[in-house]
Design brief:
single chain, about 500 residues, alpha/beta, FAD/NAD(P)-binding domain, Enolase-like, domain 1, 5-stranded antiparallel β-sheet, globular, Class-I_Pyr_Nuc-Dis_Oxidored, FAD/NAD-linked_Rdtase_dimer_sf, FAD
């Protein structure tokens, strides 16, 4: 069965959904190909379930820190897991499928791979209702690759044979293990250490360096202290050199080496959270002259560099999300998906006669360029305390040659902190470009710090001069009053 559409999107996660929706909005016919669940990693195995697992512990901690509130006691693990299941739809993606239908996007189930220029071969899962054999889709205009990323297992002897958890198994677990070893001190490792400690697991976290090494040092230190206070055995500067699991489903033993020597740690489960890589190996990139073992490099219009051009020199192959290797976060991938969909609609949509994009640097170009990926990446780590950041760290800014001054403030000294909780603590820091006197980066560490991030993001993206920002009066008594303190510390 061969079918033809104007645009074909490979991958129906949130990134592919955004690209497909934007492209179809101008009247282009769009099909999205998905081998698993519509909604992708974020909806079923990442953002939604992980934050659901983390929320009850945060609420309990806030209650315990608030005078006059009865101690809520231990979490009901079964109830937490049941709430997680409700939030993920228990693996039912019919609601997501209906959304695609509502915006006029066709869903083709199966594994999609390129087999030539503007050609996508789809192989349905064996035995599925869609299993009518492999068929071919033709794109009149463009193909957008949004295949995401996959977890990486480091080459530790015995690790693969031990059948460890990855982030998928950790967020989809049907019961809470009595004990858990986590390998990796990044976002997934720290969040899952927090969640499973809250749920009653005895957690050991092994990291080769400090926690959250991509963030400001004070952020990683705060999370380290909090995890240890919660009972997590955090081992920094350590490596797992061997893994053994004699029985399937039985206890797993890891050999840990650090500055103190070598020790074996045995637990019910092992979670590997050492990173992810773009899922390009089975996308058929070799059939269009591209490497299969590297991210899809794109320009800021999300057109794939190195791919051939269609008639008139217009690009036909686009990519967005984790598969590009640009910024591996769902919200940034959705942003790239919106850019890619708008670019395709502009180049090929029925209302513009196949016009070219505006020239780079022009005011109109800003609508079609993924510039936030360069200087305004946002991230929230939902540990306790939360870590929220936008833009570079101080070290990254200095390495890039920016003349920055770090302005920090203790959040516990803000009036709104004491109202929130007598134990409220945290730290906030902004990076000021001293030549232009605009904020280029910010980090907030504290309870619900993620809710303070967007104000900083607007300041960074809008390049708001500090002289104007001083007139943005924060409400009292809120923790956001820290913005007034930043100005005072800077000397305004």
């Amino acid at each position: 069965m061969d079918q033809t559409y104007d645009v074909i999107v490979i991958g129906a996660g949130p990134v592919g959904e955004n690209a497909a929706g934007r492209a179809s909005a101008t009247g282009l016919s769009v099909a999205v190909v998905e081998a698993e669940l519509v909604g992708g990693e974020c909806s079923y195995w990442a953002c939604i379930p992980s934050k659901t697992l983390l929320r009850p512990g945060a609420v309990r901690a806030a209650a315990r820190a608030t005078p006059g509130v009865a101690d809520p006691g231990p979490l009901d693990a079964a109830a937490v897991l049941a709430w997680r299941d409700r939030m993920t739809g228990e693996g039912d993606d019919s609601g997501q499928e209906k959304w695609l239908e509502s915006v006029g996007v066709a869903l083709v189930r199966g594994h999609g791979r390129l087999v030539g220029e503007r050609k996508v071969e789809v192989t349905p899962e064996p035995g599925s209702v869609d299993d009518g054999g492999t068929h071919l889709l033709h794109a009149r205009c463009a193909v957008i690759v949004a295949t995401g990323s996959a977890p990486v297992l480091p080459p530790v002897p015995g690790l693969a044979a031990a059948n460890p958890w990855t982030s998928r198994e950790a967020t989809a677990a049907e019961q809470v293990p009595e004990s858990l070893v986590i390998l990796g001190g990044g976002v997934v490792g720290c969040e899952m250490a927090t969640a499973y400690a809250d749920l009653g697991s005895r957690v050991t976290l092994v990291a080769r360096s400090g926690l959250l090494s991509g963030a400001e040092r004070f952020a990683g230190d705060a999370v380290t202290d909090a995890l240890r206070e919660a009972g997590v055995d955090v081992r920094l500067g350590a490596e797992v050199t061997e893994v053994s699991r004699p029985e399937v489903g039985g206890p797993v033993t890891v050999t840990v080496e650090d500055g103190r020597g070598t020790e074996q740690v045995t637990a019910a489960e092992l979670l590997v959270a050492t990173g992810r890589r773009p899922r390009t190996g089975d996308a058929g990139l070799d059939t269009v002259g591209l490497a299969t073992d590297a991210p899809l490099t794109t320009d800021d219009s999300m057109a794939v560099e190195g791919a051939s051009r269609a008639a008139g020199g217009r690009p036909w192959l686009f990519a967005c999300g984790d598969v590009t290797g640009r910024v591996a976060m769902t919200h940034q991938g959705k942003y790239e998906g919106r850019v890619a969909g708008d670019v395709v609609a502009t180049l090929y949509g029925p209302d513009n006669g196949g016009s070219e994009l505006p020239p780079p640097g022009s005011r109109a170009w800003t609508r079609y360029a993924a510039t936030a990926d360069h200087g305004a990446q946002t991230q929230v780590v939902f540990t306790r305390p939360q870590v929220a950041s936008v833009g570079p760290t101080e070290a990254e800014a200095r390495d890039a040659g920016l003349p920055v001054r770090a302005v920090a403030y203790d959040l516990s000294a803000v009036a709104g902190a004491g109202v929130t909780s007598p134990e409220y603590g945290g730290r906030a820091q902004v990076l000021v470009d001293t030549e232009r006197e605009v904020i280029v980066g910010a980090t907030f560490v504290g309870p619900d710090a993620g809710e303070m991030l967007h104000a900083a993001t607007i300041a960074v993206v809008g390049e708001v001069p500090l002289g104007r920002l001083w007139h943005a009066v924060p409400a009292f008594p809120t923790v956001s009053e820290v913005w007034l303190r930043f100005g005072e510390e800077y000397g305004l």
